[in-house]
Amino acid sequence: MRNSPAIRELPQSLNRLAAEVAAFPLATETSFHWARNTLDASKAARLWQDAEQHLLQRFGVSVDELNILRDQQWYGHLQFPNTPQHQGVSMLEYLRCIAEGYLRRQGNTASPFDPRSWQPNEQNGPDSRDRWRWMARTIPTDLLLVSLWNSNHRPIDVDLCPPQLAQRLRDDGFTEPHLHMGAGYDFSVYWSMLMASLSVRTTKINFQSTSTSFQHGSILANWLLIAGTSRLLLAEFLVQRSRYSSTQLEFASYFQFRVLSQRNRIGASHAMLLRDTVRWLSVGRLGSTASLGQLQAVLLSLCYVRPTLFKNLGRDPLDQWFPVGQQDRLLSESLFYCAAFEYFDSDGSNDTAFAQIFWQYIRIRNVHFSDIALGPQTPGLTAFGRNHARLATANSFLGIGKIASHCSYASGVGKGLRYLELRTAPLSKAHPMGKAIRAIEKALKPNLSSMPSKDRLSEWGMILHFQRRKAEGNDLRNTEPWQRNIHGNPGYRYNMSGFRFEYFYRRICAQAAAILELMKMHPSILARLRGIDLCTDERSVPYWVFVRVFERLREASDTACANYFAMHGESLQPLRCTIHVGEDFPHLLSGLRAIGLLLDYMPMRDGDRLGHALALGLDVSRWCQRQGSVVMYKEDRLFDLVWEWDCYSRSVTSASSSRAIYLSSQIRELSSEIFKVAYEPNELKELIIELHKPAALQRTGFPNVPRKSNTIIHRYLLDSAAFKRGRETVHVDTAHDAESCEQIQLWLRKRVAERGLAVEINPTSNLLIGQFGDLKNHPMWRIRNPNRIVGQPTIPIVIGSDDPITFSTRLPDEYAMLFDGMVSSGLNADEALMWLDDARRYGNDYRFTTANWLTGPSRS
C-alpha cells in the first residue's frame, strides 16, 4: 500500500494544514471530549497532544513545523492582539479571529482575505481564495459568516469570483450541467432539515457507517438528538430572556426552572432524562444508556412547531423561536447564532453554563459536517459514496421541490445562471415521477418569472440518473473479503437465479419501465425530462448491464417526440445522455477501457456528454511514476489486457513484438487461473461483444432461468468459483504499460472529438476524488489545453459543480477556482478568461434543457 504523499508533494497544502490546525479546537471529536469553552495554553496541552498525533499521521511535516502553525493559529499575536499571552480566550473570540483571518466584510457578502500578506494587492488574490476553500471544508461557512456580523455588515454569502469573471458570468449567462440534487445544496440547509427529521417519530435513525464520527456512527444518532434538544433549550432561553427583559437571568437558573416544568407536565423520569442529556453534552460523554426513542421524546417535548403538520412541513423546529420568511435565504440557525453571540458580547460574558452547552453543540454540528463534506486524501468513489449516503435522512424529509429551490441558489441564480440541469434517481412508478417534476416546476417558478431578466433562470430540465452500486443497503457499509457481498458475485444472496448482476438488472428495469410509461402516457413530459445518466461507482457495475435499458429509453423518447409532433404540430427533443466514466480506476488502462467500451457499445449520440473522463487527460508518465505498482483483481487485469489487444487488432496503433507476446501470454495465463481454461485473446474479445448484445444475454436465460451450456459467457455469468478466483489479486508495474496507455489515450481523445461529445469537468470533485493536489495537474488542461497546441484533438469542456454540499463548493466558485489555477500556472487574466468563456459557451451549447426544435422531431 502506498503511503500518503508528503505535504510538500501536494502544492498549496500548507493552506489546508493551517485550516485544520485552526479548526481543531472547534471541529473535532477530540475537542468535543475536551469540552472547554476557552482556549488557554495552560489547559490545552492534552488537546494539542491529540491534535499533533492526528495531524502528523496525515501530513508529512516535522513536529517543529506543526508547533509553529499551532502557535500561529491558536496563540499568535495576529489572532489575539489585545490578549496577554498567559490568558485564555473565549471560543467566540477565537472563532472571530479565524473568520477575520480569512474573510473581509462587504455588506451582505464577504470576500476571501489574507491579512498576513505583505503585498496589499495579494491580500484578496488567488492564494487568499485557496486559503478560504480549505477553511470552508473544515468549519461550516454559515458559522464563520455570522461571527462577522455587526451593525453595518451582515454577510450571508462568500463571493469567490474576481470582479471581471463575475461580471462576465452574469452578463453572458452560464449552465449548470452536472448537479446531483441529493447533494446540491449547502450544509446549513442539510442541518436544518436533519433537525426537523429527527423531530418526527417515523424517521429511521441510523447513521452507522465506516469512518463516520462517534464510533463509526453507532452513537452519532444519540448525540444528534441531544444536540437538537440543546439547541432548542438555548434558543428558548435567549428568546424568553429578551422577551421579558430578564437581564439577570442566566442559563443554569433557567434550565432548573425548565426541568421542573417538564416534571410537572410529563413526568419526573422524563425531566431527569432532559437534565442528564444536557449534563452529558457539557462533559462530552454519554452517561447511562437511553434509547433513541427516549431521547427523541425529550426533543419532541420542546417542539411547538411540529414538522409533521402539513402547514409546518419541512420547517426546522428552531423556527418557533427564530422565524424566517418562506423566500428568505437566511435560516433560523444563523439568527440563533446571532442572538447567542450578542448575548456573549453583553450580559452573557460570564454565563459559563450557556457557553459550555452552546460550544459543545457547535462542536457536534462541526464534527458531523466532516461526515458530510468529503475530506482530501480520501480518493475514490467508495469513500464519496459513503459521504453521499449520509444525506438520505435529511433528503427524505426536505421534499424534492425545496431541494430544487436550494439547488438553484447553489448553482448561481442571481449570478448569471440561465440553464439548470437537476439530476435525481428515477422512481419505480410513473405517477410519482410526474408529480415530482410538477413540484420542481412550482418551486422554481419564482426563479423563472419574478426575477430581473439578467438574474432570471431561463430553462431547467431533469436528468434521471441510474446509480451503479456495489451492493444493497447495509452491505454497502462493509465490504466482505474478496467482495463476496456485491452484485457481481453470482452467489450474492440477492441473485436468486445465480447470475451476476441479476437482482441489480431487475431493479433498473423497473425504474426504466416507469420512465417508459411516463413518456408513453405524457409525451409532453419531455419538455422537462431531458436526459438520462449513469453515475456513482463506475467500477461496481459494467456497461453490459445497462446497454438494453438505455437503448429502449432512447428509442422510446424518439417515438414520443414523433407522436407529439403528429398530435400538436410542435417538436420536442428526445432524451439526451451523459455517463460518468474514467473517473475512478485501479489502473489508467482500466479507465481508458471504460471510455472505449462506452464509445463502442452505449447508445451515445452527437451532443451527448461524458462525466469527468479524467483518464482522457492524465499525464501518463507522471501518473505511472506517482503510482508505481498497483494491486488489481485478476479479472480486471484480464479484461484490460484483452481490450488493449483488441485496440491493436483494430490498427489503432502498432504494438511492439515484445508487447504483443506479453499480452497473449498474460491473457492465456490469467484466463486459465480464473476460468480453468486458457482462452485466446480473440475468444475473450468475443465474450465482451456477446455480453453487450441483449440477444446473446437472453440466450443464456439472463436474468431469469439459466440455460445449460458450457460456453464462456455462461461460465462468466454463472460460475461463482470463477468469480472468486477473479477476485484474487495481481501486482502490476504501471511503468510497463505507460507507452501503451499513452498511445491509446491519444486515440480515444480523437474518437471522443470526432463523435461530437463534450466532457463534464467538476474541478473540486476531481481534486478530492482524484487526489491531484491542485489544478496545475488536472487532466482537463490536456483534454482542452489553454495554449491551443497544434495537432492535439480538441474536446469541448463544460463546467459543473457535481455535489455542492459534499465538496463545499458552488458553481460560480468552480469558475473562480479554474481562473485562479490558470493564473497561478502562468497565464494572464485575459487568457484565463478566454478559456473560461469557451467553457461557459460550450456549457450553453451542450445543455440538455432545450426542449423544442424549430422544425420536425429529431431523426438521429
Brief rundown of the structure:
The N terminus and C terminus are likely disordered. It contains 36 helices and 15 strands. The two termini are 48 Å apart.
Keywords:
single chain; 860 residues; alpha/beta; eight-stranded parallel sheet; three-stranded mixed sheet; 36 helices; disordered N terminus
Layout of SSEs?
Layout: H1 13-23, H2 29-34, E1 38-39, H3 45-56, H4 63-75, E2 89-90, H5 91-100, E3 103-106, E4 109-112, H6 126-135, H7 141-146, E5 157-158, H8 163-172, E6 174-176, H9 187-197, H10 213-216, H11 220-243, H12 251-266, H13 268-283, H14 292-301, H15 332-345, H16 352-372, H17 381-389, H18 392-398, H19 400-411, E7 417-424, H20 430-449, E8 459-468, H21 502-521, E9 529-536, H22 547-568, E10 576-581, H23 588-601, E11 609-612, H24 620-627, E12 629-633, H25 634-649, H26 657-675, H27 681-691, H28 694-699, H29 712-718, H30 720-726, E13 729-733, H31 738-754, E14 758-761, H32 763-770, H33 780-783, E15 797-799, H34 804-807, H35 811-824, H36 829-845
Parallel strand pairs: 4-5, 6-7, 7-8, 8-9, 9-10, 10-11, 11-14, 14-15
Antiparallel strand pairs: 1-2, 3-4, 12-13
